[in-house]
Design goal:
With about 270 residues, this protein is of the alpha/beta class. The protein folds into two domains: about 210 residues, NAD(P)-binding Rossmann-like Domain (Rossmann fold, 3-Layer(aba) Sandwich), CATH 3.40.50.720; about 40 residues, no CATH class. The protein is built from nine helices and seven strands, in the order βαβαβαβαβαβααααβ. The longest helix is centred in the middle third of the chain and has 29 residues. The chain has a seven-stranded parallel sheet, sandwiched between helices.
Length: about 270
């Protein structure tokens, strides 16, 4: 059977763990050779090992801080040196620090913007640098439903994600004449992922501490409040997001650029 993305070259930032790891593995199963970029080098190498174990695709890991342009440039140069081209870039790296606005730490707020927005800018800049001479390429930003609707006690994250959609639309307009498409995916709440469920610093814990869910006394109260917001009454999964990534990267989406695709079970319909 022909795989959807056979022999394409993909770079995934933040690809070592969680959703990024799931995207890296799914792209390999769809036929891509994959570059796993992440600050956590050991975890990135483990993801590469899993790709080698479960597929016949090539992969390598490179320690990359997406807020440092020299490192982002080196990432793309290494990918081209190894594979001669870059077909798909998934800008997934990012952080989330939830705090009430009146007590928010200014440097933490700045760090979220730096990773989520400036890091996306650097990733897209160098993706376009490589893709323009090719006259083809697909850039996919992993955004959030918080990029379409404000988020109480979470202003830095929402601001970075709103800005991310503006960046996607701008890149899509500029790069369309060069055969490059740029889209965003806005997942709903990945309630069963470590991002949410980590007992020490997951979002359930952060949101409970921040008082983001009025009246919530326990982590389970916070979880149920978020389930209740979804018309389909379930959280988003890694597979839901990966399905959208594969679609937007494929020829089936060849006439789609500049969109922010909601994958939210109906929670966000814009």
């Amino acid at each position: 059977m022909t795989r959807t993305l056979e022999n394409q070259i993909a770079i995934v930032t933040g690809g070592a763990q969680g959703l990024g790891q799931a995207i890296s593995l799914r792209l390999a199963r769809e036929g891509c050779h994959v570059v796993v970029a992440d600050m956590k080098e050991e975890a990135a190498q483990a993801t590469v090992a899993e790709i080698a174990k479960t597929t016949d695709r090539r992969a390598f890991a490179l320690k990359t801080d997406v807020t440092q342009e020299a490192q982002v440039r080196a990432l793309f140069d290494r990918a081209v040196e190894t594979f001669k081209q870059v077909d798909i870039v998934v800008a997934n790296a990012g952080i989330l620090i939830a705090e009430p606005i009146a007590e928010a730490d200014a440097e933490k707020w700045r760090a979220v913007m730096n990773a989520n927005l400036f890091g996306n800018f650097l990733t897209m800049k160098h993706a376009c640098r490589v893709m323009k001479p090719q006259r083809r390429g697909v850039i996919i930003q992993i955004n959030s439903k918080s990029g379409k609707k404000g988020s109480a006690a979470n202003s830095a994250y929402a601001a970075s994600k709103f800005g991310g959609i503006g960046l996607v639309q701008s890149v899509a307009l500029e790069m369309a004449p060069h055969g490059i498409r740029c889209n965003a995916i806005c997942p709903g709440n990945l309630l069963d992922s470590p991002l949410w469920a980590d007992p020490n610093n997951g979002l359930f814990v952060q949101y409970l501490r921040a008082g983001k869910v009025p009246g919530a006394k326990t982590i389970e109260d916070v979880r149920q409040a978020y389930v209740n917001q979804v018309p389909m009454k379930k959280g988003c999964t890694y597979d839901d997001v990966c399905d959208a990534v594969v679609f937007l990267a494929s020829d089936a989406a060849s006439y789609i650029t500049g969109i922010a695709l909601s994958v939210t079970g109906g929670q966000e319909m814009n």
